[in-house]
Amino acid sequence: MKKKIIYLLLLMLLMPLCLMAQSKSTFEIKDGHFYRNGKVTPILSGEMHYARIPHQYWRHRLQMMKGMGLNTVATYVFWNLHEPEPGKWDFTGDKNLAEYIRIAGEEGMMVILRPGPYVCAEWEFGGYPWWLQNVKGMEIRRDNAEFLKYTKMYIDRLYKEVGDLQCTKGGPIIMVQCENEFGSYVAQRKDIPLEEHRAYNAKIKQQLADAGFNVPLFTSDGSWLFEGGTTRGALPTANGESDIENLKKVVNQYHDGKGPYMVAEFYPGWLSHWAEPFPQVSASQIARQTEAYLKNDVSFNVYMVHGGTNFGFTSGANYDKKRDIQPDLTSYDYDAPISEAGWVTPKYDSIRTVIKKYVNYAVPEAPAPIPVIEIPSIKLDKVADVLGYAEKMKSVVNDTPLTFEQLNQGNGYVLYTRHFNQPISGTLEIPGLRDYAVVYVDGEKAGVLNRNTQTYSMEIDVPFNATLQILVENMGRINYGSEIVHNTKGIISPVTIAGKEITGGWNMYPLPMSEVPDLGKLGNNVYANGSVKAAKLKDCPVLYEGTFTLKETGDTFIDMEQWGKGIIFINGINIGRYWQVGPQQTLYIPGVWLKKGENKIVIFEQLNAEPKAEVGTVKVPVLMKLNN
Fold first, then answer.
1. What is the rounded distance in angstroms from the CA atom of residue 479 to the CA atom of residue 124?
2. Do residues 260 and 311 make contact, with C-beta atoms less than 8 angstroms apart?
3. What range(s) does the Beta-galactosidase 1-like first all-beta domain occupy (predicted)?
């Protein structure tokens, strides 16, 4: 009897060790291949970002990926999402990265982590917190002591969150990226010596190691940018490379003459901007390229396999010679195989068919889509005067206009006003507008200035004893290119009228819209919609509010085609920007953000050219309709 008891006790003591041994796994890069638990294992990955999907849908979307035949999920980590203020960290709810990774592991997926600290990703400021621009002596993305101090704090804090989820500790994380597309930045910033670029890149790699990341590292760049982007000890991978012979040649050159060979960003679609056509890539083209990779032992990461949505103020921006800013759409559909709302597409089916021919594991069916509902009419019974409300707030006064950053504001809007005792007229010029402004004189709309169309001037006539009002919107900080270092917002240069700089007596009223405005607190600036006072707000910025009752919830798309420009809050959640120029005319509302019973909608409409009484939703998104 005693022997049996001792045996059982020993068994109980050894059981955790056995379970631990079973749960641990290995992932190695050796002999030109990826090895998972000692077996050659190609990586068939898809990029999918936790922050662009409600956390309630993470498992569904990961199951969608499995149903396409993929065995890995890759995700960027968005520094600014997790540290909105210096030292204030948030990894809860839709920001719970560790939970996202754990769910991926539960679904049998490997995980590739891409922590940046720069990520690009069509995301606000490429993932950097806006407040870095207020740090004295800071120069981002280079060998700068102040910058590296903050990147170390970020990387160390990230490790505390997800370090134990590396495969070396029994988790699903198999690889970590070192920096991101750094070769592009080296090519864009030739004013910085190559030696300094390399020193910076090596220090980021060392910070990852010092924090405790000990799975294989990799870099990703266009194949022609490896000279500046690779770093010793990290596997080079080639973004967007369809020429397999060239892929192998360039990887061999920078990886001791051998693989493995991987395309870390295989594009099934492309990013999309406001006021530009929505790009599309054919399903057959992507299926053929997928098969070429599989035939030639090339691992890949489909960027994006599911794009999701740039909720709130998370979308970034690009620029080119014709447009000083190209703000990204709220939708991050990307023409991806899994649509913005998590639906199967012809591209999904095409890729799945190809993958099933080459893998030695069973590919499950895709899960059922989330139910979709339509709400034909939501009555908007209240309207609020935003100019009137703002000017009753306490202002910040300065001789010259202050930037958002100087006002300690990251996103949203700022109302700039200047009172004139004497009349003034002529050309109003704001070359430092960042990014979009509606100009008023005593509440009467005078015109629009727009960095997107390079419209920085207009004629103005300010009469005696009148107030100039300029409502400025931050449309998202630039996330790619050398101009990423010039990312302050608001009015960042002198304002002139008829060639004369306007100084003295500028008032700034911050409107960050970081939380849904409470019309109940706006007092006598709120009117019944349809009233005489509400009608007088035509062409003025307003807040509309309405409630609607649901018996059943589901995903839906709010139809904003007849509206102007603004943002929408559903039950207190900012679902993103809309703009009449298109091509996006609907905004995605996840069903998990709706509830049975009463729901509330608040719309901030900046233009209000045609006052509205109602708004509705549809079952199918409109993402390809340009109006400009």
1. 6
2. no
3. 401-512
Give catalytic status of residue 265 as yes or no: yes
Tokens at residue 202, please?
Answer: 């090596």
Nearest to 141 by CA among 125, 157, 156: 125
Q: Which of 265, 405, 545, 605 is catalytic?
A: 265
The CATH number of the domain where 87 resides is what? 3.20.20.80
CATH of the domain at 603: 2.60.120.260
Segments in the chain below pLDDT 70: 1-23, 628
Q: Do 248 and 181 belong to one domain?
A: yes
Residues 593 and 486 in one domain: no
| Residue at a domain's end among 445, 471, 504 | 504
Q: In what order do the strands lie in the sheet with 39-40?
A: 27-30, 33-36, 39-40
pLDDT at 25: 85
User: Active site residue: 124, 181, 340, 545, which one?
Assistant: 181
The DSSP 8-state label assigned to residue 315 in this structure reads B
How many domains does the chain divide into?
3
Report which DSSP code applies to 153. H
240 neighbors 266 (Cβ within 8 angstroms): yes
What's the 3-state SS for 494-509? CCEECCEECCCCEEEE
Q: 429 and 340: one domain?
A: no
Beta-carbon-side half-sphere exposure of residue 593 (alpha carbons within 13 Å): 22
* Burial of 388 per CB tally in 10 Å (0-12, 13-18, 19+): middle
Q: Is 99 a catalytic residue?
A: no
Shared-domain flag, residues 291 and 207: yes
Note down the domain range covering 479.
400-504
Is residue 373 a contact partner of residue 591, using CB atoms and an 8 Å limit? yes
Distance of CA 323 to CAs 271, 320, 435, 452, 475, Å? 16, 5, 11, 5, 13
Contact 497, 458 (CB under 8 A): no
CB-CB neighbours of 427 under 10 Å = 12
Encoded tokens for 182: 């750094």
Phi, psi of 403 (to 5 degrees): -80, 165
Question: In sequence order, what DSSP letters do the residues of 336-351 get, joined into one string?
Answer: -SB-TTS-B-HHHHHH
- Sole residue written with tokens 């000279």: 227
Which whole-number Å values give the CA distances from 167 to 36, 215, 387, in the listed order? 10, 7, 55
Q: What are φ and ψ of residue 284, in 5° steps?
A: -65, -40
Taking the C-alpha atoms of residue 95 and residue 102, their distance in angstroms, rounded to an integer, is 13
Which of 449, 480, 504 is the endpoint of a domain?
A: 504
**Which of 328, 330, 308 lies closest to 49 in space, CA to CA?**
308
Q: What is the pLDDT of residue 17?
A: 38
Angle between helices 145-162 and 97-106 in degrees, nearest 10: 40
